[in-house]
Design brief:
Blueprint (H helix, E strand, L loop, with lengths): L3 E2 L2 H5 L8 E4 L9 H10 L4 E4 L11 H5 L3 E6 L6 H8 L4 E4 L2 H12 L4 E4 L13 E4 L2 E7 L3 E12 L4 E2 L8 H6 L1 E12 L18 E4 L22
Parallel strand pairs: 1-12, 2-3, 2-9, 3-4, 4-5, 9-11, 11-12
Antiparallel strand pairs: 6-8, 7-8, 9-10
């Protein structure tokens, strides 16, 4: 099975449609599948439900899909860096399913593992639990959360081989591995594409069985979400 495609648009061809559910990896701007997000934008698919820790920032990452009004609903845990997100949510244009970060991670992991639901203490007694089943275990209340599965998962990896075995680098190993398992179809963009056998088996984070399509995206731009600088201390003259 040929998994490597010429570019991001080719890798997404035939998969995108209005109203679908997409998982998008990354945390802030770290490890986001920017080339694949651009392909979603170019497709014009709309009324999308996007599952992602956050929605990028204005003009970068998923923020570009907010600009084109292609996202109808976000399932996220943090959206504080995106002014357009806030504007669309407060005006009623954008639906938001707010989920505690650890719960979001577990919902995705559960979906990838075939677990339809689980119970957690996080959110009990808050609006997070509104409308959800609450059950007592050993004298403690827990709220039921549903696992998440996407029509398409898009992820970013540092290295991948032609069979789809993936390696993530440092902080970019955030939501990407679990999302790769929770998509009916998973597409990965990789910075370094190598032949099968060139990655040590013990180094593989996502086995290729989870990855349907690949695109080589060398030298991607590494955006800095919050740049903090200070003046260098001036050495005292002798």
């Amino acid at each position: 099975m040929q998994k490597v495609y010429a570019d991001a648009s080719a890798a997404m061809a035939g998969l995108l449609k209005d109203g679908m559910v997409i998982m998008s990896g990354g945390f802030g701007l770290c490890g986001i599948p920017e080339a694949l997000i651009a392909a979603v934008k170019a497709s014009g698919a709309k009324d999308l439900t996007v599952i992602s820790n956050n929605a990028g920032v204005d003009g970068i990452g998923l923020g570009t899909l907010l600009e084109t009004r292609q996202i109808r609903k976000m399932i996220s845990s943090y959206v504080g860096e995106n002014k357009l997100f806030a504007q669309q949510f407060l005006s009623g244009e954008l639906e938001l399913e707010f989920t505690p970060q650890g719960t979001l991670a577990e919902r995705i992991r559960a979906g990838g593992a075939g677990i339809p639901a689980f119970f957690t203490k996080t959110g009990v007694g808050t609006i997070i639990a509104d409308g959800k089943e609450v059950r007592s275990f050993d004298g403690e209340d827990y709220v039921m959360e549903r696992g998440l599965v996407a029509d398409v998962s898009i992820v970013h990896a540092w290295k991948g081989d032609t069979e789809g075995n993936l390696v993530y680098r440092k902080t970019a190993r955030n939501f990407n591995p679990m999302m790769a398992t929770a998509g009916k179809v998973t597409i990965a963009e990789v910075e370094h594409l190598v032949e099968v056998g060139e990655i040590e088996p013990d180094q593989i984070h996502t086995p290729g069985i989870f990855v349907s399509r690949l695109v080589h995206v060398p030298n991607p731009v590494k955006h800095i979400e919050q740049r903090t600088v200070r003046q260098r201390a001036t050495a005292e003259a002798n």
